[in-house]
Design brief:
The longest helix is centred in the last third of the chain and has 17 residues, at 263-279. Among the domains are: 6-91, Translation factors (Elongation Factor Tu (Ef-tu), domain 3, Beta Barrel), CATH 2.40.30; 102-212, Rossmann fold. The relative contact order is 0.13. The chain is globular, with a radius of gyration of 19 Å. The protein is 28% helix and 28% strand. The protein is of the alpha/beta class. It contains nine helices and 16 strands.
Amino acid sequence: MREYQILSTEDVTEEIKVFDLYAPMVSRRCQPGQFLIVMNDERGERVPLTIADFNREKGTVEIVFQVVGKSTAQLGAMKQGDALYAIVGPFGHPSEITGHKKVVTVGGGIGIAPVYPIARGYRENGAHAINIIGARSSDLLVYEQKMRAISDELIVCTDDGSRGRKALVTEPLKEILEAHDDIDLCLAIGPPIMMKFVAETTRPFGVKTIVSLNSVMIDGTGMCGGCRVDVGGKTFFTCVDGPEFDAHAVDFDLLMSRQSMYRDQERQAMERWEHECRLGLKPSGE
């Protein structure tokens, strides 16, 4: 078996993929809340992906990603038996798993996947775990059965009502906070706009709220400065200081504006790659 070989793939949708990867050295050091950087080939972009699951005995790690540009499209075109060029990590500080009695986690879209090992860790350490997962529609929900297996209570929401409750995740979150005055932690992972409104929902209740950020990142070592975020009026680097931060102190508006900075370049790279593929040329690594 080759290092970084793809052992299995799952297409949740045409755009959302799940890969189980053979990476024994990486899996031995993985902790909930950390992330990896993967490269599909020698000239490929360094793509940061939060760890969705890991198995130290089998030497495997699981990643979930959405095809949103050239690099993730190239990654998504890989098949079982192919091998990635590199998997680097784990990076970032692990989640603080212990010391909680009752927690609420909120996962939105593919953010549900990285919530899973953290929520599992909370429950394994004795916390009562209430987990909320949501997506635009039922076909975009991931890890529902995995989340159900490690939940004391699982609430499923979809924007269109095609699965579970027709609601935004903040609606049941507010109801839970009103019904339980002993929630000592809320953790949220998903689109920045979702995390922003989760933070605003928990703020009046004074519940500690943590979010895991997926900002623009290049090297993962704090050298490039691309992943900088404003937390409490101070600058931090997501790769070395995070990825988890106090949700009530994050400047989400600045985060969202930074994430859209390279949208034109991403679109051009995708168009060039698709054009080369249609012509039957070997796609460039630029």
